[in-house]
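Why should sequence recovery work at all? Because a backbone constrains its sequence more than one might expect. Tight turns favour small or flexible residues, buried strands favour hydrophobic ones, and helices have their own preferences. The token representation captures these environments compactly. In the example below, the structure is given first.
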């Protein structure tokens, strides 16, 4: 049975790295789900084991935050923000800084994937209307979304996973990760400005500027009230998943927006992916092999809680299998991780996602949404900014973690 589990695990995580299995139209979610089904049919896990493996509170938090983000999308807030950025009467560098600030700020309290999904099309249209090349701004949009999301426990899926695994407090997390996240946002701006200096204008000049109505004030106010209520609930002993679901339920109650529209903006693929990965990694952990690997590393003086392991692991894993699968894998085999090490994992795994287009879902969403709008953002173009901004951000985060005593080498 151990050989069977290892084979399924290897195939699933090879699929995570490749993004698909050769000759098949299976994406990462399909691969992970197929792996979980194979383990169930092969007897490696049973129905009760699957239910035990899946961390339902984490999935509830993700679902609730997606519904809260959907409220802002349905209010027209993201479109309005993107067009306001593009129409701001400032020079290209100021617009770049504004893109970074808005994207990073929104991603700290709302799902970063939803932010880039909603903002990309309107930002492209507005920038073309100004005669500006959208590509550097799109790199900044995704890079800042990743960097800003590192600041909070609800900024991205991997932070939510880590927060639930360690029972981390929202405000303590912000205190530990907020400063390096802000610094990473500044690094994103400086890197993109330097790499694209003198090349921010389009040769063909401006195109017609699109029109978009202002956001629905009532729906926007409802979303803002829900966000404030959520932050207040995080300061209470109430479990995070309970508070998030309460706010999400309030967002669904509406006389003007159907619940179908809200639920249509939920990333169900991501929820299924995480549930399936929980099952696959649980089956691996049950073999006892990961525990023996951890003991071997500890015997060699390389514990999982040190930056000497977490930094290279985050960089390599996030840009191969993806930061969410990497975090799911690690927290399944990591027994009683220190709080400071969890902050380090959240920061490093998130910031590592800026290295390549495939490093984070926010990058992939931005590239795909741009292509649908007629803008091609290539792998090399992204890497020219992604590599230096990521290495500089990781160095700054590691220095912060070390000097504050949150994690050591």
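From this structural description, the recovered sequence reads:
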């Amino acid at each position: 049975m151990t050989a069977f589990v290892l084979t399924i695990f290897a195939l699933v995580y090879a699929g995570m790295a490749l993004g698909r299995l050769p000759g098949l139209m299976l994406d990462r979610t399909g691969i992970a789900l197929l792996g979980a089904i194979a383990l169930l049919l092969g007897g490696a896990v049973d129905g009760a084991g699957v239910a035990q493996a899946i961390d339902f509170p984490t999935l509830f938090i993700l679902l609730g935050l997606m519904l809260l983000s959907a409220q802002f999308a349905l209010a027209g807030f993201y479109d309005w923000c993107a067009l306001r950025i593009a129409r701001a009467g400032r020079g290209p560098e100021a617009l770049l800084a504004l893109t970074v600030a808005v994207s990073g700020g929104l991603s700290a309290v709302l799902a970063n994937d939803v932010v880039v999904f909603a903002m990309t099309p309107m930002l492209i249209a507005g920038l073309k209307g100004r005669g500006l090349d959208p590509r550097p701004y799109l790199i900044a949009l995704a890079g800042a979304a990743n960097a800003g999301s590192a600041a909070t426990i609800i900024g991205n899926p991997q932070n939510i996973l880590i927060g639930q695994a360690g029972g981390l407090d929202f405000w303590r997390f912000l205190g530990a990760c907020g400063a390096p996240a802000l610094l990473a946002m500044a690094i994103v701006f400086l890197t993109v400005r330097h790499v694209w200096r003198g090349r921010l204008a389009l040769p063909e000049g401006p195109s017609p500027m699109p029109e978009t109505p202002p956001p629905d004030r009532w729906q926007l106010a409802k979303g803002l009230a829900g966000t404030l209520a959520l932050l207040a609930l995080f300061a209470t002993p109430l479990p995070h998943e309970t508070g998030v679901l309460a706010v999400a339920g309030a967002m669904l109650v509406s006389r003007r927006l159907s619940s179908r529209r809200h639920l249509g903006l939920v990333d169900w693929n991501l929820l299924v992916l995480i549930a399936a990965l929980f099952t696959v990694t649980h089956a691996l952990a049950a073999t006892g092999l990961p525990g023996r690997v951890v003991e071997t590393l500890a015997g060699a003086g390389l514990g999982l809680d040190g930056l000497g392991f977490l930094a290279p692991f985050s960089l390599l894993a996030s840009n191969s299998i993806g930061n969410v699968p990497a975090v799911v894998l690690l927290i399944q085999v990591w027994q009683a991780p220190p709080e400071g090490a969890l902050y380090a994992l959240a920061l490093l795994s998130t910031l590592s996602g800026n290295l390549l287009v495939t490093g984070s879902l926010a990058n992939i969403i931005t590239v795909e949404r741009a292509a649908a709008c007629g803008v091609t953002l290539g792998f090399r173009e992204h890497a020219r900014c992604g590599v230096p901004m990521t290495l500089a951000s990781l160095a700054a985060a590691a220095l912060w973690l070390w000097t504050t005593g949150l994690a050591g080498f």
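A few observations help interpret the result. The mean pLDDT is 87.
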